[in-house]
Specification:
- This protein has 416 residues and is an alpha/beta fold.
- It folds into 2 domains: 3-19 and 230-415, Enolpyruvate transferase domain (UDP-n-acetylglucosamine1-carboxyvinyl-transferase, Chain, Alpha-beta prism), CATH 3.65.10; 22-218, UDP-n-acetylglucosamine1-carboxyvinyl-transferase, Chain.
- Helix content is 31%, strand content 26%.
- It is built from 14 helices and 24 strands.
- The protein has a 4-stranded mixed sheet with strand order 22-23-1-24. Strands 2-15-17-16 form a 4-stranded mixed sheet. Strands 4-5-3-14 form a 4-stranded mixed sheet, covered by helices on one side.
- Helix 6 links the parallel strand 10 and strand 11.
- The radius of gyration is 21 Å and the shape is elongated.
- The mean pLDDT is 95.
- Uridine-diphosphate-N-acetylglucosamine (UD1) binds at residues 23, 26, 92-93, 119-126, 160, 162-165, 190, 304-305, 327-328.
- Uridine-diphosphate-N-acetylglucosamine binds at residues 23, 26, 92-93, 119-126, 160, 162-165, 190, 304-305, 327-328.
């Protein structure tokens, strides 16, 4: 039922269009709470996490409507300040609503957020940075409350450039009194998208794309129409699938400028990359080569969200590859599943040692989280025979229709 079935071992050939970015649209949807009116957001992916955010916004009093891939949020009335239980625990991005609700109504009561099982993922950096802006936080075992009369600008250095904590602080600062300087800010493309959205709505933000963001609070934000950039992780997943399976594919509207680290890695592995205004092509004509050491890093290093997928490709590369995971401590959960397919992988602390096999064998495997699930699909497409990836719902959190996209690329794949 909740699975994906595929017959692997074929070259990939064809082209597919890349969907809008999950990690960009989620904080933008949260930001719509700051606008007493309507936001029209184009190129919104139809994925489970977006539907989930939609439900949360509706619970808070917003009206949300869809037309194709365009989502419209009317936040004229926000009449609820508490978010609890399952709806918050299911998705870590629920925490983005914290900064936005503090900016809008100054008071929030919420359960601690959940998300993928890829690490401890606390929210201490979010809470510490917001408390610098005058927010009083009372933490209890399963939930916390945050209250502020008027958010105040502050000059703050992030101990670590957390993507989510930077986004929360930007959301809180947009309507705050005075100027907020965020030093050692994350500079992932999704931060840039959030800043662009807020600027289009009238926010005063400087230093976008750098590690120092300066946000001078404005009295109010106005209605806005914004197009979400395309998803670099979805594009990266498909590019890696071409490395694992060989073939020749074209990714229409891939966000090339955000894929620098992956493109360099793909070239080292033997992929021939072509870039034109419409997207990104990759040709892989012979078995790929191993990468002696690949380290995940904050942007613009190699993204942790593509680490599992590249591991699946390394499992069939010639030679030994080593991956060092520096962002999340529990991101090797797919190793046991890849081993069921014949992969030769050993882990030691935050390192994985992968000796490439000529071919993996199809198997029944279990997805345990979003990107690991996508990586198992990549492995299944390169493997001989039939693979079944169970727990499809994890993959649907971030991929609009991974089977449709891979069928466009010539794969024999269907939901089961
Ligand atoms: C976001 C992305 C996720 C991506 C990650 C890193 C979204 C919806 N998710 O997640 O796909 O993998 O960036 O690029 O955009 N940390 C703390 N305390 C905190 C916050 C974070 O210790 O308060 C730690 C985390 O446990 C993790 C590291 O910092 O080890 C990075 O987390 P962060 O950059 O905050 O990632 P997310 O915003 O959760």
């Amino acid at each position: 039922m909740d699975s994906i079935h595929m017959y692997g071992g074929n070259f990939l050939r064809g082209e597919t269009k890349i969907q809008g970015s999950k990690n960009a649209v989620l904080p933008i949807l949260a930001a719509s709470l700051l606008i007493k009116g309507t936001c029209v957001i184009e190129n919104c992916p139809r994925i489970a996490d977006v539907y989930h955010m939609q439900n949360l916004l509706q619970e808070l009093g917003c009206t949300v409507t869809w037309s194709g891939n365009q989502i419209t949020v009317d936040a004229s009335y926000v009449n609820e300040n508490s978010m609890g239980g399952e709806s918050v625990r299911r998705m870590r991005s629920s925490v983005m609503l914290l900064g936005a609700l503090l900016g809008r109504i100054g008071e929030v009561a919420m359960t601690y957020p959940g998300g993928c099982v890829i690490g401890k993922r606390p929210i201490d950096l979010h809470l510490t940075s917001l408390s610098q802006m005058g927010v009083e936080i009372v933490e209890e075992e399963y939930h916390f409350t945050a209250k502020v009369k008027k958010l105040k600008g502050v000059d703050y250095t992030m101990p670590f450039p957390s993507v989510g904590a930077t986004e929360n602080m930007i959301l809180a600062a947009a309507l705050a009194e005075g100027t907020t300087v965020i030093r050692n800010a994350a500079k992932e493309p999704e931060i840039t998208a959030l800043c662009e959205f807020l600027k289009a709505a009238g926010a005063n933000i400087e230093g976008v794309e750098t590690k120092v963001l300066t946000i001078t609070g404005v009295k109010e934000l106005h209605e806005v129409k914004y197009k979400v950039p395309n998803d670099r992780i979805v594009a990266g997943t498909y590019l890696i699938a071409a490395l694992a399976c060989s073939g020749s594919i074209f990714l229409e509207q891939a966000p090339i400028e955000h894929l620098h680290a992956l493109i360099e890695t793909a070239k080292h592995m033997g992929g021939n990359i072509t870039v034109n205004g419409d997207g990104l092509g990759i040709d892989v004509i012979r078995r790929i080569k191993a990468i002696p050491c690949l380290k995940t890093e904050v942007y613009d290093g190699f993204p942790t969200d593509l680490q599992s997928q590249i591991m699946a490709a390394m499992a069939v590369a010639k030679g030994e590859s080593i991956i060092e995971e520096t962002i999340f401590e529990n991101r090797f959960r797919i190793v046991d599943e890849l081993r069921k397919m014949g992969a030769d992988i050993r882990t030691e602390k935050n390192r994985a040692y992968i000796i490439g096999r000529k071919r993996l064998e199809g198997a029944v495997v279990e997805a345990e989280e979003l990107r690991g699930g996508a990586a198992l699909v990549v492995a299944g497409l390169s493997a001989k025979g039939k693979t079944v990836v169970n727990n499809r719902h994890f993959i649907e959190r971030g991929y609009e229709d991974i089977c449709r996209d891979f069928r466009n690329l010539g794969a024999d794949i269907n939901i089961g």
